[in-house]
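Please fill in the sequence for the structure shown.

STRUCTURE ENCODING:
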């Protein structure tokens, strides 16, 4: 296996509702290597999205640790870092793709794609050069100045993919990335995502309810009773 870039150790997550504790994740152990593409399936409410949020440090676990390789390859405990450092990791080393694209409606495709670079302090000229190049790769070079409301669902998801990859992340987290698309468009989008993932050499972890799409990934897992298991 290639070098590990992320290790989850005993991740657990409890939610409180109506005075009761509801365990969603119980003890998740997971090692993600650079260049892997991984799918995670599970029943609705099984905790797939919760797990993805923990892996991307969007939320903190009730128990457990998340270790990420730094630029020198040394593992560091993400949740032991200062909040500002965690924010930097999310912005610069993790790319998020969601079922609902979360594009800024008043910004065109180019500026939506460039947003992570703008937050990181990259100059507008460099950001726009990189953004245009990625939009060309996802087949939207002719739509860079169109706003989300002027794009189809599939085109909006292509913009979201370009935005997630703009900073060449080590980890790409996709939560039902094709769940809002018709089957033909969904297949096209997933193929594009897998192709572009190899260019940035990052790992892809995709949550999906579609077993056919899940089978396109080389490593397949399922969440059962809050624990990850292999799935054929």
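FILLED IN BY: designer on duty
SEQUENCE:
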């Amino acid at each position: 296996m290639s070098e590990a870039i992320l290790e989850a150790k005993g991740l657990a997550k409890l939610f409180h509702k109506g005075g009761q504790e509801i365990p969603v994740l119980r003890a998740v152990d997971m090692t993600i290597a650079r260049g892997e593409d991984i799918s995670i399936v599970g029943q609705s409410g099984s905790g797939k999205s919760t797990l993805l949020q923990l892996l991307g440090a969007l939320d903190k676990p009730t128990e457990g640790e998340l270790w990420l390789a730094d630029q020198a390859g040394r593992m560091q405990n993400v949740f032991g870092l200062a909040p500002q450092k965690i924010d930097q990791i999310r912005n610069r080393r993790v790319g998020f793709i969601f079922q609902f694209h979360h594009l800024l409606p008043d910004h065109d495709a180019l500026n939506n794609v460039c947003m992570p670079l703008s937050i990181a302090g990259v100059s507008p000229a460099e950001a726009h050069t990189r953004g245009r190049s990625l939009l060309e790769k996802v087949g939207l070079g002719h739509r860079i100045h169109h706003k989300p409301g002027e794009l189809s669902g599939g085109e909006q998801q292509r913009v979201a993919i370009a935005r997630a990859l703009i900073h060449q992340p080590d980890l790409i987290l996709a939560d039902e990335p094709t769940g809002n698309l018709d089957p033909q468009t969904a297949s096209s989008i997933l193929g594009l995502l897998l192709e572009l993932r190899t260019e940035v050499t990052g790992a892809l972890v995709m949550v999906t309810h579609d077993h056919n799409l899940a089978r396109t990934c080389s490593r397949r897992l399922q969440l059962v009773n809050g624990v990850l298991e292999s799935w054929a």
